[in-house]
Amino acid sequence: xxxxxxxxxxxxxxxxxxxxxxxxxxxxxxxxxxxxxxxxxxxxxxxxxxxxxxxxxxxxxxxxxxxxxxxxxxxxxxxxxxxxxxxxxxxxxxxxxxxxxxxx
Length: 104
Hints:
There is one protein chain. By secondary structure, the chain is mostly helical. It has a single domain, classed as lambda repressor-like DNA-binding domains (434 Repressor (Amino-terminal Domain)). It is built from 7 helices and no strands. It has helices at 3-15, 19-26, 30-37, 45-55, 59-63, 69-79, 83-97. 16% of the residues are buried. Residues 21-62 form the HTH cro/C1-type domain. This is Helix-turn-helix transcriptional regulator.
């Protein structure tokens, strides 16, 4: 099973959506969704984008073994912020990470 197929199934399970819901949210047909989940095909970039949006994960997470779902969710939320929000978040993270009680 390839990375995309694993991540696609994992994202579906974590979202609580049915396959038909993913098809409806992404605008892709049921046959394509079935082919992706069964590893017959991998989506083209535009379809991958729509799947990522439907599942609330990043395209990178769906195609890479290097980022967790929770990290992907944080990244998606970060990208929704304007420049002021991003700056404030970075400052907040700097403050937290410099405090020993929050370190691993």
